[in-house]
Amino acid sequence: MSKVGIREVAKLAGVSTGTVSRILNDHPSVTNELRARVTAIIKDLGYTPDPSARSMRGKVSRLIGIVIPDLTNPFFAELVQSAEQAAANHGYNIIVMTSFDHAAKEADRIKQLTSRKVDGIMLVPSNDFHTLKLPKGLPIVVVDRLMPGYSGIAADHRNGVRLGVEHLLQLGHRRIGFISGPGHSVPANDRLRGYLDAIEQAREQADGTRMAGPPLIAEAAFDYESGRSAGNYLLARARNERPTAIFASSDQQAIGCMRAAHDLGIPIPAALSILGFDGIPLASMTTPRLTTVKQPIQDIAAAAVAVLLNKQTAPELDNPILFACEILKGETTAPPQPD
Q1: Cα distance between residue 179 and residue 191, in whole Å
Q2: Residue 227 near residue 175, CB atoms below 8 Å
Q3: What does DSSP assign to residue 328?
Q4: Are 273 and 173 in contact, with CB atoms under 8 Å apart?
Q5: Which pairing describes strands 291-294 and 176-180: parallel, antiparallel, or unpaired?
Q6: Which of 109, 187, 236, 309 is the most exposed place for a label (fewest CB within 10 A)?
Q7: What CA–CA distances, in Å, run from 73 to 68, 85, 97, 276?
C-alpha cells in the first residue's frame, strides 16, 4: 500500500492542503469543528506528516531537543520522561542528547539539534556552563541548573531544603548533618544555603532553642557512593557528637548514607534519621522507605515544554519560575534518642 499523503487527506476532507497544514500546525485560524473533522480523517487514513519535508518548507519540525548532563541519573531520566509526555500532549516528539557534564560536548549537542531544525531546546546545563554561548533565534529554556541572563525553570531548591530542616527540627533534632552537592553546582549551592538559612534561624529562635555545635557538613557528588563516603565521615564521631539526623542533597546520596549507617550498626530511624532530596521513584523502594523532599519534576518539564511552544509566557531573564517542593514522609525520620 502506498503511503497516504496530505493531498489525499485534503481531497477526502474537501479542503485545501494549506488548511490541512494549518491544522497540523495548530494554527488558531481553523474552527474547532473543521479541526475535529480533518483530524478524524487523518487518524482514519493513518496519515503521518514527513518531518524532514516540513522542515525544508520552513514549517515547524514538531521536535523538541533536550540536552542533559547524565541520562543515568534518575532525576534527569524522570525529567526526560516527563518532558516527552508533555511534548506528546501537544503533538511533538523529543530528541535527547547527553553532554556528559562537559561544556564542549554540550555546545556540540546544541549545534546538532539546531541543524535538525528543532523548534526549541530544553537545556540542563553542564556545571561549567560559564563557557557556553547559546545560539540566538532559537527558543531555549534552561532547566534545573539556572544560568544568569537566560530564562529558567527549576524547583525552589533553597526553600525546599529549609522545609526539610524544619521537619527535622520539629521532630526534636538539634545535631543535623548535611551532605551538600559539589561546590560548582548551582542547585547544590542553593540547597546548602537553604540548610544554613534554616540552621541560623533555629539558632536565633526567641524560645531559646539552641543548636548543638557548628553545622556538620560534608561535600559530595550527588551519587550513591559519594553519599556513602559522606555518611561515614559524618558518623565517625562519638555518639554524643555525631548527628542525630542527616539531610542529603539527593536521594542517591541519602541511600548511600543509609548503607553507611547500616555498616556501622546504627539503626534507622531509631538512632539516626535520614532525609533525602529529589523524590525519585527509588526513594519509595528502600527499606526503610526514605523520607524525601520531592521536586515537582512533572510540573517543571511541562512548564518548560509549554514555554518552548509558546503555550506559556517565558520567565523573565534572571527571574526564573520556581516550583515549590514538598515532603514525602517515609520511614527514615523519627524523634531523636537521648544521648
Answers
A1: 10
A2: no
A3: E
A4: yes
A5: unpaired
A6: 236
A7: 10, 19, 14, 15
Instruction: Give the span between the Cα atoms of 233 and 260, in whole angstroms.
Output: 9
Q: Is the dihedral of CA 280, 331, 292, 261 positive or negative?
A: negative
Confidence tier at 234 by pLDDT (50, 70, 90): very high
Burial of 315 (0-12, 13-18, 19+ CB in 10 A): buried
Per DSSP, the three-state class of 60 is: coil
Cα 59 from chain centre:
30
What is the sign of the dihedral through the CA atoms of 156, 257, 236 and 166? positive
Among 133, 108, 138, 105, residue whose Cα is nearest residue 122: 138
Q: Are strands 176-180 and 245-248 parallel, antiparallel or unpaired?
A: parallel
Q: How many residues does the chain have?
A: 339
Q: Tens digits of per-residue pLDDT, 303-331?
A: 999 999 988 887 887 789 999 999 999 99
- What pLDDT is stored for residue 330 in this prediction? 97
What is the per-residue pLDDT for 50? Answer: 60
What are the C-alpha distances in Å from 45 to residues 7, 30, 39, 41, 88?
12, 21, 10, 6, 20
- Say if CB 290 and CB 254 are below 8 A apart: yes
Output the pLDDT for position 55: 47
Residue 210, pLDDT above cutoff 80: no
* Structure confidence by residue, pLDDT tens digits, 91-123: 999 999 999 999 899 999 999 999 888 999 999
Burial of residue 204 (CB within 10 Å: 0-12, 13-18, 19+) is: exposed
DSSP state of 282: G
